[in-house]
């Protein structure tokens, strides 16, 4: 008997996902199906509706890995560009919250309301060990850690 496992990969760069999907298929063989999906985590409407748009076998998420993140700009306060701050927080914090809120309800409803599934939030080491010139990145990983607790 061969067990079939469905995996969904989503990110902003679809070409990278297709390459990863191909590598998974080569290593795992026919027992694993992978569906690469382009998703911008900063767009709440896109995040809210992406699960229902997937083929049925990919709609139940067992593990969510929130690892979207970026460091933008190199300016120090008080010269940090407002657009750089907005992009970083929208991706690193709001994106994580958008994904968690989209996936968590279905995880909590499984097993007769007992819940099932895991959420892994990946943050930057810069939250604990800041480095110049990325002064803006300091508080973002702490926000991720706070949501994880």
UniProtKB/TrEMBL annotation:
<dbReference type="Pfam" id="PF00106">
    <property type="entry name" value="adh_short"/>
</dbReference>
<protein>
    <submittedName>
        <fullName>3-hydroxypropionate dehydrogenase (NADP(+))</fullName>
        <ecNumber>1.1.1.298</ecNumber>
    </submittedName>
</protein>
<dbReference type="InterPro" id="IPR036291">
    <property type="entry name" value="NAD(P)-bd_dom_sf"/>
</dbReference>
<dbReference type="GO" id="GO:0035527">
    <property type="term" value="F:3-hydroxypropionate dehydrogenase (NADP+) activity"/>
</dbReference>
<keyword id="KW-0560">Oxidoreductase</keyword>
<comment type="similarity">
    <text>Belongs to the short-chain dehydrogenases/reductases (SDR) family.</text>
</comment>
<dbReference type="InterPro" id="IPR002347">
    <property type="entry name" value="SDR_fam"/>
</dbReference>
